[in-house]
Amino acid sequence: MTTTWKSGDKKPNNQTTNNTISGTTLSSWSQQQKLAMIAGFAVLGLSLVVCACSKQSAKPALVSVSSPAPAPLPATPTTIASTIADPQAPLHKPAKKTSKKRPADVTYSDANSGLSFLYPRKFSVISGDSAQAEFAAVGDVPMNFVQPGGVAIATVALPANAYPGTDFASGFFNVSVNRAISQQECSHFAFVDTRNADGEPVDAEKVKIGGNDMEMTSDFTASDIKQVETQYYHNYVDGSCYEYSLGLSTEGFTTEGNIQHVNRDEVFAKLEKILATVKVNPVETEPVAQVVNPIAAGAVAPTSSTSGKK
């Protein structure tokens, strides 16, 4: 027997229940998915906001730490030319060596007497037997010891053109020694200054030059051809009398032309600078071996043995 269902008839109860359950299930899952999707979008948006804030806060720190690299300087034509001429040339050239200047003063020393002094390099010096002061415009300059026995050690002469345009003829510094006179005799001079208005000789004066106590006098001669002024200094050291002569010679009164007189004080000041450096060191002498005569000393001479006669 066949059963026929009409459209207007109600469906059985079991079908209605199944349809209701499935519809309820579908509607409940779609709401959960919507909530999940909304939550996911919210989390994603929050994370994007956090990332954006963190990037914006990190930018100032990076800017404060880093600094832009300096732009390279443009190459000058000189640098380009030197690089092309010698590409292997060093960047910094080595400093040039400067030559050392020689000292202005020279040391003179005499081994026999122990005497030494300084004199300007431009001056000339003569030592030994030729050291006696002698110049064309001056002639022989005598020693001023009270007793003979003086020996010249050295003479220093100023250049002839030291004072151009003046009546300067020559200037000198001379050293002599006399070992045959006593200390008392060394304090005197053979001839002294006689420029006193009364014609009486002027006594020697005691002076101190460069730490050395000395006696000093002067001598002056003049003529139509030349004028010579000499200052003498005596110093007694280690049993010897040393004499230092400072001399200046000028042209005479008949000089023609517009020639000025040389500054005498300036010339003698230069010569006194040499005198102030004088030093006399004691000379070590080797002891002389003495031969002793044993007989004279009281020793008994040995007797030679001879054979006796029978």
Q: Report the top-level CATH class of the domain at 114-279.
A: Mainly Beta
Report the strand count.
Answer: 12
Overall helicity: 25-40%
Order of helices and strands: HHEEEEEEEHEEEEHE
Q: CATH architecture of the domain at 114-279, please?
A: Sandwich
What are the key terms here?
seven-stranded antiparallel sheet; single chain; Jelly Rolls; alpha+beta; disordered N terminus; three-stranded antiparallel sheet; disordered C terminus; 310 residues; 4 helices
What does this structure look like?
It is built from four helices and twelve strands, in the order ααβββββββαββββαβ. It has a domain at 114-279: Sandwich (Jelly Rolls), CATH 2.60.120. The chain has helices at 13-65, 77-85, 183-186, 264-276, and strands at 105-109, 115-120, 124-127, 134-135, 139-140, 151-157, 168-178, 205-209, 212-222, 226-237, 240-251, 279-280. It starts with 12 loop residues before the first helix and ends in a 30-residue tail after the last strand. It has a seven-stranded antiparallel β-sheet, with helices on one face.
